[in-house]
Each structure stands twice: as structure tokens, then as C-alpha cells.
UniProtKB/TrEMBL annotation:
Limits of the PPM-type phosphatase domain: 10-258
Pfam families, per database record: PP2C
UniProt feature coiled coil, ranges: none
Phylogenetic lineage: unclassified sequences, metagenomes, ecological metagenomes
NCBIfam families noted in UniProt: Stp1_PP2C_phos (NF033484)
Molecular function as annotated in GO: protein serine/threonine phosphatase activity
Protein name: Protein serine/threonine phosphatase
Organism: sediment metagenome
Cited InterPro entries: PP2C (IPR015655), PPM-type-like_dom_sf (IPR036457), PPM-type_phosphatase-like_dom (IPR001932)
Length: 292
């Protein structure tokens, strides 16, 4: 889907850290699809690992199936959003399906009660970058020596900051900063935030779990991203900083470097929200078609 009119270099890394026994993060780097995913699972007793792995796999399989079949906007899982591109709707449907499967597993199996996961996705096409997120994992765009968040934290404190009830400084140290208001698997329906942006030459994107952002601030991410010349070096440097600072959580990072774009784009992006429709009558048929 990337095409020949831009060059894309990528790298991904995941580290269990210094305090956790297992790694509940999962990630996907699929250059053939231009699809990049990070999930940060939760739930304990390996349930978080299950939720994140299942979500990554459903997103990968479902997206590839729809791309290969050239699925129309009305063929995706759930009600389409006509303000989005077809690829944006593919991501929307993938997230909805992952949520449904994880929610059903958590509801029906005692050992998985309470499991869930965050998700961040970047899709790179020849003329469009599409990002999607649920939870508090993050996506950053580094462009023209500035860092811009392309994800929205779905946490209690983020909502309080947005309503003017808390400052960003207070939010950073709040004991509630990781209490999520949305994630994959905690409720029957989920509403992701999706952005669509035109690529620009030398754009760099970072997808990460909160193991990075708890210990490395945005200014440091900007500085290191501009100093490193390959995505592999950037991922390694960021992980090394996290380990040096205690690495109390799992940390997963994907870096994406764009170059050789033939036409410079302005890169104005829009944020799109969704109203969710009932699609329960299509669930079993869709899952049978997608998941063997």
C-alpha cells in the first residue's frame, strides 16, 4: 500500500523492563501493508498478554483480508464512517472486531476476567498517514523540529485536564494517571480516535507503550529522534534510556522514518470521532470469515 513515491524505514523493539516478570506488550511491524501496531495488555496472570496478542493478530489478519479482497466501505465490520478514507474505515472495523473478541473472551472465561489492552496504529499509504488509538499508548509525529501528539489519552486525568479541572503538571504526578476510560475489551463497544494526515518529507513517527512515556518526556523524544539517523538506532537509544531510569514497566517502541516524498505536503490533519451503531447480528459471521 505504500507505493513507490516515498521511502519508509521502520524498526520495532519490546523490552520486559527491570521490574516485571512477563511482557504484556505486543507489536506488529508489517512493511508489506504499511501497518504498525502497539498494544499494551492489562489484566494479570498472562491475561494482558493474551489480550494484546489477540488484538494485534486480529488487526493484522482482518486488515490484510480487506485489502486483498478490495472490500468496500459497506463491507467492513460495523457501521462505516463516511468522513474517513476507505483505509481509515478498515482500521475502524479492525479495532471494533478486536474489541468484540477480547470482550467476549473476558466475559465468558473466568481466567480472563478484567483483561484488556490499549492499541495504537499507524498506517502508511502513498498519500496518507492514518493513526488510530484506544487507551494511553501514544503516537508522536516529529516534523520540522517539532513534536506533535497524534493520539489522545483515554484516561481520567486526561479528561480532567481537558475540562480544566487539573493542570498538566498535576496530571503527570497523579496516582490516577493510568486509570483508563477506554480500552480494548472492557466494554461491548469501543470508540477509537482516528487522525488522517498527509505525509511530508522527513516525517518521523513514534508508537509506544507508556513504559517509554512514563520515563522520557516529549522534548527528550524530539531531541533523540532528530539526532538518530536510523529507526533501529532510535529504538535502541530510547530503550537504553528507559533501562537507565529503572524500567519499571514493559516498554515497546516502533519508529517510522519517511523520506523521498515527491511532493511536499502541508500535513494538516483532522481528528474524527464516531457514533457507534449496533452490529451484533454480524459478529459470528464476520469472525468465522476472518479467524480460522
Amino acid at each position: 500500500m505504500i507505493g513507490d513515491d516515498l521511502e519508509v524505514k521502520t524498526s520495532g523493539i519490546s523490552d520486559v523492563g527491570l521490574k516485571r516478570e512477563g511482557n504484556e506488550d505486543s507489536f506488529l511491524v508489517d512493511d508489506s501493508l504499511g501497518l504498525y501496531v502497539v498494544c499494551d495488555g492489562m489484566g494479570g496472570h498472562l491475561a494482558g498478554e493474551v489480550a494484546s496478542q489477540i488484538s494485534v493478530e486480529i488487526i493484522r489478519k482482518t486488515f490484510r483480508k480487506w485489502v486483498e479482497e478490495g472490500a468496500g466501505i459497506d463491507e467492513i465490520y460495523g457501521k462505516p464512517d463516511y468522513s474517513l478514507s476507505i483505509e481509515g474505515n478498515y482500521l475502524l472495523g479492525c479495532i471494533r472486531l478486536a474489541n468484540h473478541v477480547v470482550y467476549e473472551m473476558a466475559t465468558e472465561n473466568k481466567q480472563y476476567h478484567g483483561m484488556g489492552t490499549t492499541v495504537v496504529i499507524v498506517l502508511v499509504t502513498h498519500d496518507l498517514i492514518i493513526t488510530a488509538n484506544v487507551g494511553d499508548s501514544r503516537i508522536y509525529l516529529i516534523r520540522d523540529s517539532m513534536v506533535e501528539g497524534l493520539s489522545k489519552d483515554h484516561t481520567i486525568v486526561a479528561e480532567q485536564v481537558e475540562m480544566g479541572m487539573m493542570t498538566e503538571e498535576e496530571a503527570a504526578t497523579s496516582p490516577m494517571k493510568h486509570i483508563l476510560t477506554r480500552n480494548i475489551g472492557s466494554s461491548e463497544y469501543v470508540v477509537p480516535d482516528i487522525f488522517e494526515i498527509e505525509p511530508a518529507n522527513n516525517d518521523r513517527f513514534i508508537l509506544c507503550s507508556d513504559g517509554l512515556t512514563d520515563l522520557v518526556n516529549e522534548d527528550e523524544i524530539l531531541e533523540m529522534t532528530e539526532e538518530e539517523d536510523t529507526p533501529e538506532n532510535l529504538c535502541k537509544r530510547l530503550i537504553d534510556v528507559v533501562l537507565d531510569r529503572g524500567a519499571h514497566d514493559n516498554t515497546t517502541i516502533i519508529s517510522i522514518f519517511l523520506s523521498d516524498i515527491r511532493t511536499r505536503k502541508e500535513g494538516i490533519f483532522r481528528k474524527t470521532g464516531f457514533l457507534f451503531a449496533d452490529f451484533f447480528n454480524r459478529v459470528q459471521k464476520t469472525i468465522k470469515n476472518i479467524i480460522p
